[in-house]
């Protein structure tokens, strides 16, 4: 009985580790797809469209078993989708296209820090300087922010790279790579902030509408519509909408199984 209790307590941690592994796999696959020419904006549209098609039966066949959806709730779902899907996902994959999956994984450590700050601002978390628990949270926030700034502003040389005197790397190329790395980091910071805002608002909305599956279905639907508008504005090349049955299709199917569409 004791072993069973320990295993049950470890399940949430195992689930979080699995989610992190899935997210790392998604950023890696999406980077490979974008390196082959796939637009990050089109990727977001197809990913959410596929998730909407999968979740659509839950909206149709279980509409009598879920709480009624009011116009006010639809507006909240729309805003939540704008922050947690459209802005967040486009910033994530744009940041990955400018930098690398490694930076995306490292910058994810900012999410707890942003969430803690938002919780303090909205009085969801009490900040007591005399409490050791509050001081530890503040220290963790400072460490997360400083670490993210360090990895964004200092890319460093590639591991195993050898530069010879006869064929040095051109300085403009180095500057261009560094600038892209910083731009990618800024997009990823924005995405982490969106995740924190999304998590905070989602918790409040779920208290009003405790039907997770229906809410996720509406979020994916609104996310598909919103990201389609963004893609039509940002991506002017009609060939970008052509989906090849290779790493592009694999990455889109894989994305539905990760937390990016949840």
From TrEMBL:
InterPro entries with a match to the protein in the record: EamA_dom, EmrE-like, WAT1-related
UniProt keywords, alphabetically: Membrane, Signal, Transmembrane, Transmembrane helix
Organism (species): Populus deltoides
A GO molecular-function descriptor: transmembrane transporter activity
Protein name, as recorded: WAT1-related protein
Domain EamA: residue ranges: 26-151
Subcellular location: Membrane
Pfam families for the chain: EamA
Membrane-topology descriptor: Multi-pass membrane protein
